[in-house]
Write a structure and sequence with these properties.
Elements lengths: L1 E6 L11 H9 L4 E5 L4 H10 L4 E4 L1 H9 L4 E6 L6 E6 L15 E4 L3 H10 L11 E4 L3 H10 L4 E5 H6 L2 H4 L2 E6 L8 E4 L7 H9 L6 H9 L6 E3 L2 H14 L10
Parallel strand pairs: 1-2, 1-3, 6-7, 6-8
Antiparallel strand pairs: 3-10, 4-10, 4-11, 5-8, 5-9
Helix pairs in contact: 3-10
């Protein structure tokens, strides 16, 4: 089987995941893999729109359009890995809680749409929305943290795993204000509709990845995937996408969900 796989740039990038290792594991399962790990959102979108993609690993916000508009089929998710985000000010900043923020505040963040959507929901108690803040987009979470520490931004949005991957010296100069606790959202593996007839085989290639042997299981842990991927029913995927869709609506607060 041949597979062309695109990995969302917001998954594992800050931890320096070696995607060549994942490709090597799949080749051991007789899968001819071409694995693309775009460096940014533009490259990611171009890779998908160019065509010839068989599988996409997408965050739940990006997955909405891929599934409901483009016909991609969700079939698995990373096991025990949930998508969460964190908002932080500088350790020396007078901003100690979300309600200390004022209109016009500057937010440093990467082009991770999931993190941006959830972050803006968490700012609602301060009466802030996209029209009352300034977004400063950065290539990496390290660059975003630098802007906060230097005073060039009041707060930064981080994927929770990206924040944890920051050097300890950097985290000591930051003051976390709030962390999301959704627990029901994660990245999704999506199959291109043109490969629908191969869906069961493709799913098995991923779900059984860690079961090849002890070496494979160890490699999966090295990738930060814990025990690999868990199969996902269409109903479970739709529930996740419904939640992600609700979070795109400004009035949808966590209390209402």
């Amino acid at each position: 089987m041949k597979l062309k796989i695109v990995i969302s740039p917001d998954f594992g990038r800050e931890r320096g995941i070696d995607w060549d290792l994942l490709a090597a594991l799949m080749r051991r399962r007789n899968t001819d893999v071409e694995l693309l790990a775009p460096a940014n959102l533009r490259e990611y979108e171009n890779a998908i729109s160019t065509g010839g993609i068989d599988v996409v690993l997408a965050n739940p916000i990006d997955a909405i359009a891929l599934v409901r508009c483009d016909g991609f089929i969700p079939f698995a998710r990373p096991t025990r890995l949930h998508d969460e985000m964190l908002i932080s000010s500088a350790a020396t900043s007078p901003i100690r809680t979300i309600i200390d923020l004022r209109p016009g505040c500057r937010i440093a963040l990467t082009t991770d749409r999931f993190v941006e959507v959830i972050g803006m929901r968490l700012l609602e108690p301060a009466g802030l929305d996209n029209s009352s803040v300034q977004h400063i987009y950065c290539e990496t979470s390290v660059a975003a943290s630098d802007l906060v520490v230097s005073g060039s931004a009041e707060i930064a949005f981080f994927a929770a795993e990206s924040y944890s991957a920051l050097p300890l010296s950097t985290r000591r100069r930051l003051n976390p204000l709030v962390k999301s606790e959704i627990g029901d959202l994660s990245h999704l593996l999506l199959c291109h509709p043109q490969r629908a007839l191969d869906l069961a085989d493709i799913r098995d290639k991923f779900v059984e990845l860690a079961a090849v042997d002890m070496e494979a299981a160890s490699a999966i842990r090295t990738l930060g995937l814990e025990i690999g991927f868990t199969p996902l029913t269409r109903d479970a995927a739709e529930d996740m996408l419904d939640l992600a869709q609700a979070l795109l609506v400004p009035s949808a607060t966590f209390a209402e969900l």
